[in-house]
C-alpha cells in the first residue's frame, strides 16, 4: 500500500487556484505544497498497494470543485471514495497492478473508482511515476510534475470521471512499453485526484490510487551499494556498564531490479573483542536508482578503544505477484566499514583518581621514612659528636701538669741522694 509520511493536518496554500498557469518556479514549489496537503485527509494520505483490500475507501475532508455537469458541492462536506484494480483478463481481486511485458509489448486493464458519498463526485484520473520518500515509502509524483518512465507508458481512456452517488465507474487504460525500454523493474500509479480551491485561494489536492509494478523482460542485474557509513559511540556514567553505538549509512539500488535488502551490523573492538551485532535492521524495498538512509543503534557495546562497525548488505529480488523468485538471479553482497574511538572516560577518570591516591600514599610513606631516617641520622650524629667531645676532654686531662706533692707523683729527674761523692 502506498503511504505518505505522517504529518500535521495542515492544508497547503498557493497564490491562485490555477497552479498550472504559474511560472515554473512557483509550479515547482506548488508541487511539494500540494503533496503536503495530501496528508490533510485520509483520502490523500494513503494509496492502496500490496496490503490494501480491494475497494478500499478513503474519506476526504472536503468535496471537490464540481464540473459543469455536476452541482457545486459544499466545501465542508465530507467526501468518500475508493479505488481498486478492475476485474479483467489481467486478474481479479488484485491488490494492485503488476505486469511483465517485453519491450514493445502492450496490454489493456482498468481502474474501478467508487463513490461512497451521497452526492455526485467529479475526479481527475491520471498516471504518475513512483518514487521513494526519505522514510522509504513509495509515493507518486504530483499532478504538476512530469513523469519520465512508466507514468508516461500508461494512457487512460479519459482524464476525468464523474461518479453518481453510491455508484462505481470503470476507467480503462493501456500500458505500452517502448521498443527501446531497458529491462528491469518500474513503478508508477493510476491516481484519482480531488482538487479543492477555498475562498482564500488555498488549493488542496487529495489523491487516491493504486500502484503499478512493471517488469520489462530481459536480463536482471541487481546491484546494491553502501555509502557514507558513519559510526558514533555513546558511553554511560556507569564505568561497569557497556554503552551503545550508532551506525548511519546510505543504501542505493544501482541495478535494474526491485530489491528487498537484508542488512546486518556488527560492532567490535580490536582483534574482534566484544563483538555485538544487530540483525533486525529495517531497510525498505528499493526501486532501481533509489536510495535510502538509515540509522541503527546497537546496544551492549563495551568501550575498548578503536571500535569497528562492519555493515553487510545483501537481499533478494522482489518477485512479481503470482511468481516465484528466480534462483539464478542473486543480489551480490556488499560489505562496508567505519571506525571510531570508544574511550571509557569515566573508568579512566576513576583509574586516574586511584593512581593519584596511590602516588600520594607512596610519597607520604616515603616522606615519613625520609623524616625518620633524618631523625636517626641526627641522633647518631649527635651521639658521635658527644663521644668525640668526651674523648677530647680526656686527652686534654692527660696532657695537663700535676702537683709534685700529690701521691704517686713521679720522681724528679735528679736525685740528690744518688749524686756521687766528691
List keywords for this structure.
18% helix, rod-shaped, 37% strand, disordered N terminus, 5-stranded antiparallel sheet, single chain, alpha+beta, 422 residues
Roughly what percent helix? 10-25%
Indicate the overall shape. rod-shaped
Structural class by sheet pairing and helices: alpha+beta
Span between N and C termini? Answer: 165 Å
Percent of sequence in beta strands: 35-45%
Describe the structure.
There is one protein chain. This protein has 422 residues and is an alpha+beta fold. Helices cover 18% and strands 37% of the residues. A hairpin with a 7-residue loop joins strand 16 and strand 17. It starts with a strand and ends in a 23-residue tail after the last helix.
Concise account of the structure shown:
This protein is an alpha+beta fold and 422 residues long.
Detail the topology: elements first, then pairings:
Elements: E1 2-3, H1 24-37, H2 42-45, E2 46-47, E3 56-60, E4 79-85, E5 97-101, E6 106-115, E7 121-132, E8 138-140, H3 150-153, E9 154-156, E10 160-163, E11 168-176, E12 184-197, E13 203-216, E14 224-234, E15 243-253, E16 259-268, E17 276-278, E18 291-301, E19 305-317, E20 334-342, H4 345-399
Parallel strand pairs: 5-13
Antiparallel strand pairs: 1-2, 3-4, 4-6, 6-11, 7-8, 7-10, 7-12, 9-11, 12-13, 14-15, 15-18, 16-17, 16-19, 19-20
